[in-house]
Design a protein that fits this description.
By secondary structure, the chain is α/β, with parallel strands linked by helices. The chain is about 40% helix and about 15% strand. The strands form three sheets. The chain has a seven-stranded mixed beta sheet, sandwiched between helices. Strands 1-2-3-13 form a four-stranded mixed beta sheet. Helix 3 packs parallel to helix 11 (about 305-320) and helix 7 runs parallel beside helix 8. The structure holds ligand KE4. Ligand KE4 binds near residues 144 and 157.
Length: about 450
């Protein structure tokens, strides 16, 4: 499969953009090779600048839950843009969006729009600190909440992929207020509360970790965090940037029946436009300016074009909840068919899935923590990634990212993916191709 045009563009991009990308996760650093420069996309497919058709399991890292170029979203953007692209003044669309999200998410009463998930998470911990008058937060190793200074401590996603989970540039003063616990380990959280009495403003987590691969919460973990936060007077913050509107219409709060004090959103809420949001009860959100003293702002927050895009997508998800049954079934089919192929070739693979986010780890045993994730064979993943890319299947270019299935991934697309995996492993097991050890 030629990637000549992508190579030319990548060389050109690196002259004027750090690493040739506007976000490190796109740079193929973990898997090597040339990032594919995409010219267009439709449904489950991307088309790169060499006109290769690729089955897409990234979906813009989550937003494309109904597939790329979903007609209602495109029409909403086209119609809205015709009335100008921003006003810097309140609009009706922002009310419709806020009302829609508050209907869909249990326990959510007030919400403020931002322009990214990072902004949403930064704002949420500021609200927690302002509401509790405490400084420290607890996050979990391997979880990613964007590139805000407080979060680049043992972070996941691109920070983990690039080997800088704790980034230079974050001051010691900031880092001291970020405590890290172990995902799925309530004792590690309780220990921090005991060691930092009356100092912890909030506990922030991905209720289903998706930035160290897909790692679901163990039974009782979320409920345990809810109890600990209640016991020690801290706010529980669900970072639902990835899980929101993805694993259920009401995200993890609906799926697991645990209500946090604060939520953050991104990705699906904007349907691919730059949108994030944070929210919670009216009581907690009463501290947010201009009602309260916790300042938070944004020139393009609630941008009208982005609001219409997100609203078009959320309206579909709200009106047709059977979409989630389809997503569940197709994602289950993908997992089963790929695990069958791996088994045929004697590969030791562990697979986690929640709804239409899933992950495969090339290691044995359960993967329920960052320590377990660290056992995955990232070198083998890189080989598998490129083998699948050659077959026209575009996986996330890191072992530490979740895969996303969209409603456009039909049964035929899933079967095409399984056939591609079988073709890759067959080549590796045939003498002419040499053998990547099938572990
Ligand atoms: P953004 O600032 O990238 O919109 O959102 C940050 C964020 C916050 N919380 C969670 C749970 C997230 O997954 C993210 C962003 N996710 C990564 C993909 N794993 C974004 C990809 C990238 O950085 O390019």
């Amino acid at each position: 499969m030629s990637c000549k045009q992508s190579q030319v563009l990548f060389d050109r991009a690196k002259k004027c953009i750090p690493g040739g990308v506007n976000s490190p996760a796109r740079a193929f650093k973990a898997v090597g090779g040339t990032p594919r420069f995409i010219s267009r996309a439709e449904g489950a497919f991307l088309y790169d600048e060499d006109d290769n058709r690729l089955v897409d399991y990234i979906g813009s890292w989550g937003p494309m839950i109904l597939g790329h170029a979903y007609p209602m979203v495109i029409k909403a953007v086209q119609d809205a843009a015709g009335y100008s692209t921003s006003f810097g003044a309140p609009t009706k669309a922002e009310i419709l969006m806020a009302e829609c999200v508050c209907r869909m998410v249990p326990g959510l009463e007030k919400i403020r729009m931002t322009n990214s998930g990072t902004e949403a998470c930064m704002s949420a911990i500021r609200v927690a600190r302002g509401y509790t008058d405490r400084d420290k937060i607890i996050k979990f190793e391997g979880c990613y909440h964007g590139h805000g200074d407080s979060f680049l401590i043992k972070a996941g996603s691109g920070a983990l992929t690039l080997g800088h989970p704790s980034s230079p540039g974050v001051t010691k003063g900031t880092a001291k207020d970020t405590l890290t616990a172990d995902f799925n380990d309530l004792d590690s959280v309780k220990k921090l509360f005991i060691e930092n009495p009356d100092e912890i403003a909030g506990v922030i987590l991905e209720p289903v970790a998706g930035n160290m691969g897909c790692v679901p919460p163990r039974d009782g973990f979320l409920e345990g965090l809810r109890s600990l936060c209640d016991q020690y007077g801290a706010l529980l913050i669900f970072d639902e940037v990835m899980t929101g509107f993805r694993i259920a219409p009401g995200g993890a709060a609906e799926r697991y029946g645990v209500k946090p004090d604060l939520f953050t959103f991104g990705k699906v809420i904007g349907a691919g436009m730059p949108v994030g949001a944070f929210g919670g009860s009216s009581e907690v959100m009463s501290v947010v300016a201009p009602d309260g003293p916790v300042y938070q702002a944004g020139t393009l927050s609630g941008n009208p074009v982005a609001m219409h895009a997100g609203l078009a997508l959320l309206t579909e998800l709200e009106q047709y909840p059977e979409i989630y049954d389809d997503l569940e079934n197709r994602s289950d089919q993908l997992g089963r068919e790929l695990m069958q192929v791996f088994d045929e070739y004697g590969l030791t693979v562990t697979y986690n899935r929640v709804g239409s986010m899933l992950g495969f780890f090339f290691c044995d045993g359960l993967v329920e923590s960052f320590a377990d994730v660290s056992r995955t064979d990232t070198a083998f993943f890189a080989e598998f990634f490129h083998g699948m890319l050659e077959e026209g299947i575009y996986l996330p270019p890191s072992a530490y990212e979740a895969w996303f299935v969209s409603h456009a991934h039909t049964g035929d697309v899933i079967r095409e993916t399984a056939r591609a995996a079988r073709s890759v492993l067959k080549k590796w097991s045939s003498p002419s191709q040499g053998t990547a050890s099938a572990r």
